[in-house]
Amino acid sequence: MPRRDKESWGHSTVETACPLDCPDSCTLEVTVEKGRIVEIDGGHQNPTTRDYICGKVRRFADRVYGDDRLLYPGIRKGNKGDGTFNRVSWNEALDYIADKIDTIRRTSGAEAILPFCYGGSNGLLTQDTNDAALWRRLGTSRLARTVCAAATGAANLGLYGKMPGVAYEDYVQARLIVLWGVNPSASGIHLVPFIKDARKNGATLVVIDPRSTSLARQADLHLAPHPGTDLPIALAVHKHLFDRGHANVEFLDAHAHGVDALRERASAWSIARAAQVSGVDPSDLERFAELYASASPAVIRCGWGLERNRNGGSAVAAVLALPAVGGKFAVQGGGFSMSNSTAFGIKAAAWMDDTPEPPTRLINMNKLGDALLDYRDPSVEMLFVYNCNPLATMPHQNRVLEGLKRTDLCTVVYEQVFTDTTRYADVVLPATTFVEHYDIAKSYGPISLQVVRPVIEPVGEARPNVEVFSELAERLDLGEFEEETETLMRIAGRLPQQVGVELMERGAATPPYGGRPVQFVDVFPLTADGKIDLFPAVLDRQAPAGLYGFQPDPATDRYPLALISPASEKTVSSTMGELRERAAVLQMHPSDAAERGIANSDPVRVFNDLGEVQCPVGLTTDVRRGTVSLAKGLWRKSTYNGSTSNALVPDTLTDLGGGACFNDARVQVALLGRH
Ligand code: SF4
Q: CA 413, CA 416: separation in Å to the nearest integer?
């Protein structure tokens, strides 16, 4: 219930939680005056996020009340891409969509419908609830939601069955902290103070990142590998541990199998060879291997940056295998942290739908362009987009754009604001934001589960996902309408044991293991036999070069530069991209620029055979030579020509999990106007 902080009428502070696609799931305090948000700040319920939040959500009210907010349903009146709509009522819009769905399922079959959603909110109500019920009962095409965390998920599942990881708080105990492919200053910010406290206690910090981030600059050792070469680095450390007698044989004998196969695959990677392939200094790599061998507790924060390439799954598997080979478990502050999303033991299947998932066509979301343009029997006739802005977030952007322009495609976009994808919609539906609806926020950094409460009335005619999908189901005789509080209670009732009860009573559930499990003391691998599998056969079969097999760099003479697109401090993936005011800047090393006659702030074209991005350049030694960087999640308005880095990203897939290879984009850069 709203808590009154002042006597004045209409002023209250409401505690809620952030369900955006960020590891931390902060508790929030939202101050409302006369029904309008005036401040968003940190709340106290979540002990890990304490009482501060990021700058992105501090200004979330600018999204809620901004000029780009979608307020009413609309049906397209101009050409595709004009972005002009006639305002209609919800009834008219839902009738239109239901009629279209009904026609398609009768004439072409429901597989001609492609629901398309991803992480615009990570809340448990926002996707995989009433939407999943509708799609399953219809028998639409299914979506493999693999744009992020697919390779890390496959590796973590294969080796450890997704064992919960080291808590942020326990980093203070570590003597060695390794940040591998992750930048907590931009995403998962609440880890940073614990790292700082650990360093005050004498911990050594190693950062492995192609960019010199602020934490990399503070680190005792920074390895800046060429993108896509984390695998050789990790394998070289394994070889070092095995060859120098640092492998913990006793631990491996008791808790792991697949040791010999890992050792054999690592044997090809000497420090010298890995250093040569990755472009790091061999003495730095050797120093890292020695630091890792000797320090305890040692913890690796494995991020998502190293998965976004052709070797990403094997790289993550090799990194996650290090604490096993090095014997770093069973001590507070030792082991690894990856995603903690499964730590509560909550499985979406418990409430998704009693209807089993139909064996319909599975479409990898990274292949959206192909799906819209090439897939047949049936071709995609309806694309229903929600919680997602695919034109900004999917690979091979120009192909996605071409698909969205199809005049025979009916595109529904159910969104909070007028995104790039919305411009190509036939029907737009306004969605509530997390300050206007109920949800359940489950974090994947800390271990927490919290209720998200509406703090204001929906803006305009925006409506929550669960109501709209159940209403559509009712229109199609596939279910009954459910109010969001009914859905909330239904899901809470299907959560494990006391979790749901506690969640409803106090707004948060007590995390298992007090939220701070010690690996191999409190938690163990969730594999079938409870052991670590360092060489899962299923992963070895899946990877094109076998598990831990290295695939060479895709650079060519024409496109020699590696383009990376890391998370930024301005957006959560692409969410809030509408608020970016200035053109995004391509970061480039001064030596690479000088070779091309490019000076700081020059307008440049970044291009390859897939597309071209035009934007200003910023010269900096924060990126290594041979690598350029443009922020992730940009909207089309953030560049001169409306293309973003995704226009240069191939739709090839990671070795494990079918993930996106954002960091396999190879490009050339030239002064704009020079060819
Ligand atoms: S985006 Fe992350 S850091 Fe920001 S408020 Fe949400 S959970 Fe907290």
A: 10
Average pLDDT score over residue span 327-349: 92
Q: Return the percentage of the chain with pLDDT > 70, whole number.
A: 98
Distance 232 CA to ligand 1 centre (A): 33
Report, in angstroms and rounded to the nearest whole number, the Rg of the chain calculated over CA atoms: 25
DSSP characters for 341-406?
TTTT---THHHH-SSPPP---EEEGGGHHHHHHT--SSPP-EEEEES--HHHHSSSHHHHHHHHT-
What gap in Å lies between CA 477 and CA 598, rounded to an integer?
62
Nearest residue CA, atom 8 of ligand 1? 26
Greatest extent of the chain over all pairs of C-alpha atoms, in Å? 72
Work out which ligand 1 atom sits closest to the CA atom of 56: 4
CB of 465 within 8 A of CB of 451?
Answer: no
Distance between CA atoms of 86 and 72, rounded to whole angstroms?
Answer: 10
| CA pair distance 214, 316, nearest whole angstrom | 23
**Which residues form ligand 1's pocket by a CB distance below 6 Å?**
18, 20, 22, 24-26, 53-54, 56-57, 189, 572
CA of 15 to the centre of ligand 1 (A): 14
Cα separation, 369 vs 652, in Å, equals 12
Banded pLDDT at 4 (limits 50, 70, 90): very low
